[in-house]
Design a protein that fits this description.
Elements (H helix, E strand, L loop, with lengths): L5 E4 H30 L8 H26 E4 L13 E7 L4 E8 L10 E3 L3 H6 L7 E6 L2 E12 L1
Parallel strand pairs: 1-2, 4-5
Antiparallel strand pairs: 3-4, 3-7, 6-7
Helix pairs in contact: 1-2
Length: 159
């Protein structure tokens, strides 16, 4: 199986490192304590608290491995190398949405950093993919699950 490169901004890489440190430290200790307390309830074969704590431990270990793998495969986009001449990972692109007649700013990030609430979209999403490589004043049509969207790029800045 071929491993794919995971694109991250410097900020995204740091956030994943912080999350990993939390999961491997305080969170792991918390789950271990829950298992210890649940064992004290007696027979673990019929102990729902113990089963729940062990399931949480398995999920935690899975999340830790996922983050470690992401960090291992990460290609970090250096903030100094981000060009604002065209859309790429690490930029904020301001577009005019013709359908809704409004301006929207999207931060273009790698797939591991997506946060719709903060308008952080992936370079692999339909909108992100369509914007990649485009310049200021370019118009872009994007086929989305909701239909064709049309944007005009108004501005490109660094994140």
């Amino acid at each position: 199986m071929e491993e794919r490169e995971i694109v991250l901004t410097e900020d995204g890489y740091k956030k994943l490192e912080e999350q990993l440190a939390y999961l491997k430290g305080p969170k792991k200790m918390e789950v271990a304590e829950r298992i210890k307390v649940a064992r004290e309830f007696g027979d673990i074969s019929e102990n729902s608290e113990y089963d729940e704590a062990k399931n949480e431990q398995a999920l935690l270990e899975s999340k830790i491995l996922e983050i470690e793998n992401t960090l291992r495969l990460a290609k970090v986009v250096d903030d100094d190398d981000v060009s604002i001449k065209k859309v790429g990972v690490g930029v904020v692109v301001k577009v005019h949405d013709y359908e809704y007649d409004e301006d929207i700013e999207y931060s273009i990030v790698g797939a591991a950093e997506v946060d719709i609430a903060e308008n952080k979209i992936s370079n692999e999403s339909p909108v992100g993919k369509a914007l990649m490589g485009k310049k200021k004043n370019d118009e872009v049509e994007v086929e989305t699950p909701g239909g064709i969207m049309k944007y005009k790029i108004l501005n490109i800045t660094r994140q």
